[in-house]
């Protein structure tokens, strides 16, 4: 049985046959986000959204660097880097290492049945 038919029968593939960012761990993290934010991140991770993703990632990184200002925060920096990792291969390997760490040290973050707002 081919991989395409496996995806069809299991229903694990997205609309274009791709998960968020092409990584099942990233897809699990995106599914834990609140619906509106999850939909936005899923849209940004689509290959066709490249021209929106690159400026968004750059702006999030700038916002993370300026986190000492009100409204902006350090949370913007990793999100911007994760978005840019879709298009910059040097960042892609770093994102994989971070997701490996999350899988080892914080497996509850990847558990779909865990509460979404746990602070552990």
Overall domain count: 1
Radius of gyration: 15 Å
H/E element string?
A: HHHHHH
Instruction: Provide the low-confidence segments as ranges.
Output: 1-17
Oligomer: single chain
Mean pLDDT: 78
Q: Count of DSSP helices? A: 6
Describe the largest sheet: none
Beginning-to-end CA distance, first to last residue: 41 Å
**Total number of β-strand segments?**
0
Beta-strand content estimate:
under 5%
SSE-based structural type: mainly alpha
Specify the helix fraction band. Answer: 55-70%
Give keywords.
disordered N terminus, 6 helices, 120 residues, 0% strand
Describe the structure.
This protein is mostly helical. The chain has one domain (19-110). 57% of the residues lie in helices and 0% in strands. The protein is built from six helices and no strands. The protein has helices at residues 3-10, 24-31, 35-45, 50-65, 76-84, 89-105. Helix 4 (50-65) packs antiparallel against helix 5. It is globular, with a radius of gyration of 15 Å. It starts with a helix and ends in a 15-residue tail after the last helix. Mean pLDDT is 78; it is low at 1-17.
Summed up:
The protein has 120 residues and is an all-alpha fold.
Topology:
Blueprint: H1 3-10, H2 24-31, H3 35-45, H4 50-65, H5 76-84, H6 89-105
């Amino acid at each position: 049985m081919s991989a395409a038919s496996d995806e069809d029968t299991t229903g694990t593939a997205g609309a274009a046959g791709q998960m968020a960012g092409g990584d099942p761990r990233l897809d699990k993290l995106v599914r834990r986000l609140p619906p509106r934010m999850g939909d936005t991140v899923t849209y940004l991770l689509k290959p066709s959204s490249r021209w929106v993703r690159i400026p968004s990632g750059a702006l999030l990184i700038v916002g993370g660097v300026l986190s000492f200002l009100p409204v902006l925060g350090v949370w913007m920096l990793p999100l911007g880097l994760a978005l840019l990792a879709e298009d910059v291969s040097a960042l892609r390997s770093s994102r994989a290492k971070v997701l490996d760490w999350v899988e080892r040290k914080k497996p509850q973050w990847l558990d779909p049945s865990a509460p979404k707002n746990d602070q552990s």
